């Protein structure tokens, strides 16, 4: 203790807290470099203290986010070795495991994470299982990764679960998972990754048509993403699989100069492949030579050397071809006077409407002089000041404690204290407590100047507890008293009208509101609510013209008041329901322009758009829905506006294929998008534009795999291939249907048509298997007889006897029409 005590006394805790908070704020702002500098300085200053590990941990977090993994790992390891703060141990283990994964130290990562999972509190902890799942994924153990990641709610876990499912050969599962991520967090980095991974899943599962569509969508949708150039590469690779070498070359050429050497090397290699298939042997040789020379340490360089030989041979330069072949081997003061001074100072501030300082002095008196005769006045004035500051919670906290501490006061100031405390409860919607305190004022302090106000307050507290008739009886009694205070008269008549209105006594309520307006027509305290609720009474009495007249009088006389916005909206809504859309839009626009931050501005703008939609003027509806989204992008109604815009585009699309394409492009996640895309494809099909129809049908499959249109779209894509005719593509698409939709209702017809496609490729053996599948698996199929017939023909063509009685014919003479198609 002799040595430690001076150090403890030397710690400036205020300085430590201030410095730590500065660093922490920088961390929260993601300014990790500056945060690391601060934490490093603090660590140096307080190393060896009880705070060392917590400071070191935050410093390590900064290093981790700065990708200085080695240094971060050392800091986390130092904390573990010190064994001072047990609650940091699992966090350090988790961080070290993630660093090992990022550095491909999989063995070390697994050892660390398994140690973490020995902690019972972390055995079912999502992050630990997430880390193990990611470890297994990067190690290539995709099944184990799925087992760890399945069911985790972390978005990152869902992402890697989708990646693992893709690698296991389940692209539709992966696409569905990625689409969920995009729907949960649109326009975020992980959503962009998920969008890219949707295309990638199709590519790695050899669905190059689908991959081509999705990589094109990614490039259009995220042109500034760092992944866009990689999307260009995969798009080109998909095009190469489709033998579209010229188009692929256009995507690859810019990538050959990319800063990512691996990407540039692969782009150069496949550019050479394209050029070679386009007959440009010299250009191909040039591409392969660049890969070999510029990226000798990449694996693709070996393949470039191989292809270089072929390119040179194709060009006719046998000498260079020989040379190329030979080089294949290189390859994170005191007494009463003092109390009087405080009280008077507080009162002066109060009279100047400086309620903050008034409350400060009244509070000081209560804290320092509890025996002062001015304690109760100070308590009442303190609550009054807090209410004027709208610090109702503070008033309730201090006031209720004060009443418990001093319960026996009987002077008039206690009545005022109770009244102002009741006001605070009322303002916080604590109506039972407000009623109780107002009632105590009226009973125990009757004759106090605040008595009628307490009685009115009690009536409103009862009213807000939905005891309408009980409140009405109080207001009706008070209505008969000739009060001098206009505010009290207004409050009583408004309460009378409200309670009658809520009991559906609209005619009687109207009398109260109109009497109030006629008495105080220029006093906004009365005129604004009186005109508004007079309109509501007329509306409920179905005197719609009179209701509009009252609301328009309110809008014209008191346009800046908040209630005018609602009056304007209700006027427009009344016109709207009467289908007088022009009048409705005029008043709705007034609300939007004059009360842009009011909730009725949002509803007004939305209803303007809806009015155009109702009139089937979809262009104007789109414009007004978009205006809503521009004005109120984060409002609760934004989803309704987007839905309205979506439906406007959809309705336009029903009349025009071009508009339907715009709908699908703009609202790919719409519940109608699959139908829209399907209609686009159908239009091409009906116009016999089969190549375009094929592509559009495939968009239905890859963009909306769980829709009811996906299966039929894939079948129709196959039919497009038949009509081209491209029997190879047709067979591939029929196979894909059986893989993607194993429970499809038309599987017998698909097997039958696939057999026909193979027959037309003269692949009679595979055709036989398809026809046999119909015969063996679908005994009730309508294609059974035709399948048997076609099976016999294939057998004859393969030199085997068939059961058909038709005479055998030479294979080449069998017309395609002899195969009965679906």
Can you summarize this structure?
With 822 residues, this protein is mostly helical. Among the domains are: 243-331, Serine Threonine Protein Phosphatase 5, Tetratricopeptide repeat (Alpha Horseshoe); 686-818, Tetratricopeptide repeat domain (Serine Threonine Protein Phosphatase 5, Tetratricopeptide repeat, Alpha Horseshoe).
Give the helices and strands, then pairings:
Blueprint: H1 4-10, H2 13-28, H3 32-46, H4 52-65, H5 69-82, H6 89-102, H7 106-117, H8 126-138, H9 142-149, H10 155-167, H11 171-184, H12 189-204, H13 208-221, H14 228-241, H15 245-252, H16 261-277, H17 281-294, H18 299-315, H19 318-326, H20 335-351, H21 355-368, H22 375-388, H23 392-405, H24 412-427, H25 431-444, H26 451-463, H27 468-479, H28 486-502, H29 506-519, H30 524-540, H31 544-557, H32 562-577, H33 581-594, H34 599-614, H35 618-631, H36 638-653, H37 657-666, H38 673-686, H39 690-703, H40 710-723, H41 727-740, H42 747-760, H43 764-777, H44 784-797
Helix pairs in contact: 2-3, 3-4, 4-5, 5-6, 6-7, 6-8, 7-8, 8-9, 8-10, 9-10, 10-11, 10-12, 11-12, 12-13, 13-14, 13-39, 14-15, 14-16, 15-16, 16-17, 16-18, 17-18, 18-19, 20-21, 20-22, 21-22, 22-23, 22-24, 23-24, 24-25, 25-26, 26-27, 26-28, 27-28, 28-29, 28-30, 29-30, 30-31, 30-32, 31-32, ...
């Amino acid at each position: 203790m002799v040595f430690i005590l001076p150090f403890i006394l030397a710690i400036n805790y205020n300085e430590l807290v201030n410095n730590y908070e500065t660093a922490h704020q920088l961390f929260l702002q993601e300014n990790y470099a500056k945060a690391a500098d601060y934490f490093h300085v603090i660590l140096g200053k307080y190393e060896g203290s009880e705070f060392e590990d917590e400071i070191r941990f935050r410093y390590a977090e900064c290093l981790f986010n700065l990708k200085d993994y080695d240094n971060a790992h050392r800091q986390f390891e130092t904390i573990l070795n010190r064994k001072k703060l047990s609650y940091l141990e699992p966090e350090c283990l988790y961080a070290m495991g993630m660093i090992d994964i990022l550095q491909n130290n999989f063995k070390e990562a697994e050892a660390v994470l398994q140690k973490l999972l020995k902690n019972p509190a972390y055995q079912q902890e999502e992050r630990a299982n997430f880390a193990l799942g990611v470890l297994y994924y990067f190690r290539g153990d995709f099944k184990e990764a799925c087992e760890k990641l399945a069911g985790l709610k972390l978005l990152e876990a869902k992402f890697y679960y989708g990646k693992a499912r893709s690698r296991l050969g389940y692209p539709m599962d992966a696409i569905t998972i990625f689409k969920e991520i995009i729907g949960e967090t649109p326009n975020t980095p992980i959503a962009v990754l998920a969008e890219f991974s949707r295309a990638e899943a199709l590519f790695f599962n050899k669905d190059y048509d689908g991959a081509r569509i999705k990589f094109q969508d990614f490039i259009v949708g995220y042109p500034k993403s760092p992944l866009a150039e990689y999307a260009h590469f995969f798009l080109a690779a998909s095009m190469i699989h489709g033998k579209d070498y010229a188009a692929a070359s256009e995507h690859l050429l810019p990538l050959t100069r990319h800063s990512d050497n691996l990407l540039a090397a692969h782009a150069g290699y496949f550019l050479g492949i394209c050029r070679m298939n386009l007959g440009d042997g010299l250009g191909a040789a040039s591409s392969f030579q660049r890969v070999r020379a510029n990226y000798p340490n990449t694996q693709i360089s070996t393949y470039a050397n191989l292809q270089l030989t072929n390119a040179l041979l194709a060009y006719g330069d046998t000498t260079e071809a020989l040379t190329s072949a030979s080089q294949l081997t290189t390859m994170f003061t005191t007494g009463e006077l003092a109390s009087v001074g405080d009280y008077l100072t507080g009162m002066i501030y109060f009279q100047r409407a400086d309620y903050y300082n008034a409350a400060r002095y009244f509070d000081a008196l209560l804290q320092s002089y509890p025996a002062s005769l001015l304690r109760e006045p100070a308590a009442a004035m303190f609550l009054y000041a807090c209410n004027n500051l709208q610090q109702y919670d503070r008033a309730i906290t201090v006031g209720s404690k004060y009443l418990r501490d001093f319960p026996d006061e009987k002077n008039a100031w206690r009545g005022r204290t109770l009244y102002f405390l009741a006001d605070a409860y009322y303002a916080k919607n604590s109506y039972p407590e407000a009623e109780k305190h107002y009632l105590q004022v009226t009973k125990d302090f009757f004759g106090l100047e605040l008595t009628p106000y307490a009685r009115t307050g009690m009536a409103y507290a009862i009213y807000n507890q939905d005891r309408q008739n009980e409140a009405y009886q109080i207001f009706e009694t008070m209505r008969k008293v000739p009060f001098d205070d206009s505010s009290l008269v207004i409050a009583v008549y408004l309460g009378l009208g409200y309670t009658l209105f809520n009991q559906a006594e609209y005619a009687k309520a109207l009398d109260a509101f109109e009497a109030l307006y006629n008495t105080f027509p220029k006093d906004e305290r009365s005129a604004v609510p009186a005109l508004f609720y007079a309109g509501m009474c007329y509306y409920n009495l179905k005197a719609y013209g009179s209701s509009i007249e009252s609301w328009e009088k309110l809008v014209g006389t008191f346009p800046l008041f908040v209630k005018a916005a609602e009056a304007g909206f209700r006027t427009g809504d009344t016109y709207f329901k009467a289908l007088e859309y022009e009048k409705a839009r005029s008043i709705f626009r007034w609300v939007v322009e004059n009360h842009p931050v009011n909730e009725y501005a949002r509803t007004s703008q939305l209803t303007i758009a809806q009015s155009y939609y109702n009139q089937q003027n979809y262009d104007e509806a789109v414009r007004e829905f978009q205006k809503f989204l521009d004005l109120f992008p984060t409002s609760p109604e934004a989803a309704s506006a987007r839905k309205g815009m979506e439906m406007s585009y959809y309705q336009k699309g029903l009349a025009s294929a071009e508009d339907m394409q715009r709908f699908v492009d703009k609202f790919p996640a719409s519940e109608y998008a699959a139908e829209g895309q399907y209609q686009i494809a159908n239009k091409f099909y009906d116009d016999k534009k089969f190549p375009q129809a094929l592509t559009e049908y495939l968009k239905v499959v890859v963009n909306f795999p769980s829709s009811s249109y996906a299966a039929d779209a894939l079948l129709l894509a196959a039919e497009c291939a038949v009509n081209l005719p491209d029997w190879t593509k047709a067979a591939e698409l029929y196979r894909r249907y059986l893989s993607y939709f194993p429970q499809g209702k038309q599987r017998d017809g698909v097997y039958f048509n696939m057999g026909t496609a193979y027959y037309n490729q003269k692949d009679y053996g595979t055709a036989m298997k398809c026809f046999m599948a119909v015969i063996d698996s679908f005994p009730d199929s309508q294609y059974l007889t035709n399948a048997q017939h076609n099976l016999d023909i294939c057998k004859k063509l393969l030199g085997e006897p068939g059961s058909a009685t038709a005479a055998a014919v030479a294979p080449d003479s069998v017309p395609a029409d002899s195969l009965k198609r679906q």
